[in-house]
Specification:
single chain, mainly alpha, 59% helix
């Protein structure tokens, strides 16, 4: 039995812990999405698990990036608010990369035609900024939402992760991180 406190991590240990935690939630989301495609009876529930874990992974990636850049880590789950707090340089690079890749992305490229959802980063962040808070307690309903709940920020999360590694290239050799498409 553990007694006492778990002290907060600091410095590079904190940053790496945040990245590895985000990676674990991202991997859990991928497993849930895979299961959703295999189990028709449970598809909806595994899709919820996918969205909750993927959005939480992105939240942790953003908080890690804020930490790497020397900023404070706010207590919000709102992805748009978190993104707006990262440096102007990082926001610019992430937005440019996302908006360049999204039109050719295997999932996002059909969002506009099939669902009428714009795939530029600003539109997706506006739409899905609170998805973690909304979907984890879906049975309570979602106030003021008229469009279907979906998730279009997976690419964004991967690009944020890549930005972290741009700023901490020495972590690329860490065997415990996994490669994500650029």
């Amino acid at each position: 039995m553990c007694t006492g406190n778990f002290p907060p991590l600091e410095g590079t240990k904190r940053e790496k812990f945040m990245l590895k935690s985000a990676d674990a939630f991202e991997q859990a989301s991928v497993l849930a999405l895979k299961r959703a495609t295999q189990d028709e009876d449970q598809k909806f529930y595994f899709a919820l698990v996918y969205v909750v874990n993927a959005s939480f992974a992105i939240e942790l990636y953003l908080k890690c990036l804020l930490t790497v850049e020397g900023g404070q880590v706010p207590g919000t789950h709102n992805l748009k608010d978190l993104f707006n707090q990262v440096s102007r340089e990082s926001r610019g690079k992430i937005t440019k990369r996302h908006n360049t890749v999204a039109p050719h992305h295997p999932v996002l490229s059909g969002f506009d035609e099939r669902l009428g959802i714009n795939t530029d980063l600003d539109s997706l962040l506006e739409r899905d900024q609170d998805v973690f808070s909304q979907v984890r307690y879906l049975f309570e309903g979602i106030r003021d939402r008229t469009e279907p709940v979906g998730f279009g920020l997976e690419l964004f999360g991967r690009i944020v992760r890549n930005r972290i590694l741009d700023l901490r290239p020495e972590w690329l050799s860490d065997e415990s991180t996994f490669a994500l498409e650029k």
